[in-house]
């Protein structure tokens, strides 16, 4: 009996310490929340239906031609599938934005919503487990931090997507003048539009890989039997760049009226070069206005200190001596 009491003495000492009780309760609460989130994730993924998950994995592998997605993608894809909007317009808008960002895999939409769910749930959970129990913060501030982390995690994937679309569009616009010059040379050498675009795609793989990828996809579509007009429309849709949209419109009009493709490309290349020159001149004209604020708030104060500091110190010393 005495040996049993000796075993329970450390437990009684811990129960008498309020701080130890608080830490133990916080640890148990964190473990409970973590177990609950794991259970919810398993339910959402449909872990009880392995046949469905295996079929989805095989479909994705067959569509992409690879061995399959990474382990994280296999987890996030089924989770995001339940969050995909049911409205066709919203779903097609997200798919279009992902295509413009260069994400064309069949499960890109599901993976996007899975990442959004992950960023919405994990940061608040980490705050509840690792920060709130061990840092003395008011309950209202803790709730605000958890809500702000959840909102930031929800908005972060969309912000990344818009930034990726803008950066990719800028890279496509930078590579378009070189592509137009090469297209003019290939067209005047006697190549057709499809053959010229395929040749230009091969030549631009090193200098402008993004534009080369889009042109290569155009060549694959035409070789698969798609009409040139439909392939051009798809190129315009999946890039979303105004200069490429203008090029596609010009080529479609040339095909419709039967004019020379080489002459059309040369005229559009000249117009695009003039447009780039005007944009450069506009940016150069804005430099003086943009430099005004750094000059006023950064350069002028230091200049005044260096130029007027010694005279002011001398005047102050003279007045103090008088």
TrEMBL record:
GO CC, any one term: plasma membrane
Membrane topology category: Multi-pass membrane protein
Primary localisation category: membrane
InterPro entries: T2SS_GspF_dom
Top-rank taxon, per record: Bacteria
Subcellular location: Cell membrane
Protein name, as recorded: Type II secretion system protein
Membrane-crossing segments per the record: 20-47, 108-131, 137-157, 292-320
Domain Type II secretion system protein GspF residue range list: 180-308
Keyword annotations from UniProtKB, A to Z: Cell membrane, Membrane, Transmembrane, Transmembrane helix
One Pfam family in the UniProt entry: T2SSF
């Amino acid at each position: 009996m005495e040996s049993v009491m000796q075993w329970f003495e450390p437990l009684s000492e811990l129960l008498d310490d309020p701080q130890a009780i608080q830490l133990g309760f916080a640890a148990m609460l964190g473990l409970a929340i973590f177990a609950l989130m794991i259970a919810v994730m398993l339910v959402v993924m449909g872990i009880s239906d392995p046949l469905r998950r295996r079929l989805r994995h095989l479909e994705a592998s067959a569509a992409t031609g690879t061995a399959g997605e990474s382990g994280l993608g296999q987890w996030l894809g089924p989770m995001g599938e339940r969050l995909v909007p049911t409205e066709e317009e919203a779903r097609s808008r997200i798919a279009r934005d992902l295509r413009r960002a260069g994400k064309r895999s069949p499960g890109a939409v599901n993976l996007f919503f899975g990442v959004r769910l992950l960023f919405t749930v994990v940061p608040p959970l980490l705050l509840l487990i690792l920060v709130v129990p061990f840092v003395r913060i008011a309950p209202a501030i803790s709730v605000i931090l958890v809500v702000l982390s959840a909102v930031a995690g929800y908005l972060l994937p969309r912000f990344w997507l818009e930034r990726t679309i803008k950066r990719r569009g800028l890279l496509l616009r930078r590579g378009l003048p070189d592509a137009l010059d090469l297209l003019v040379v290939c067209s005047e050498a006697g190549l057709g539009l499809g053959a010229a675009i395929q040749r230009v795609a091969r030549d631009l793989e090193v200098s402008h890989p993004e534009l080369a990828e889009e042109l290569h996809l155009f060549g694959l579509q035409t070789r698969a039997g798609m009409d040139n007009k439909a392939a051009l429309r798809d190129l315009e849709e999946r890039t979303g760049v105004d200069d490429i949209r203008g090029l596609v419109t010009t080529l479609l009009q040339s095909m419709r009226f039967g004019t020379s493709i080489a002459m059309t490309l040369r005229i559009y290349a000249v117009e695009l070069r003039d447009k780039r020159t005007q944009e450069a001149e506009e940016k150069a004209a804005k430099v003086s206005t943009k430099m005004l604020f750094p000059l006023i708030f950064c350069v002028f104060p230091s200049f005044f200190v260096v130029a007027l500091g010694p005279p002011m110190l001398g005047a102050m010393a003279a007045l103090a001596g008088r």
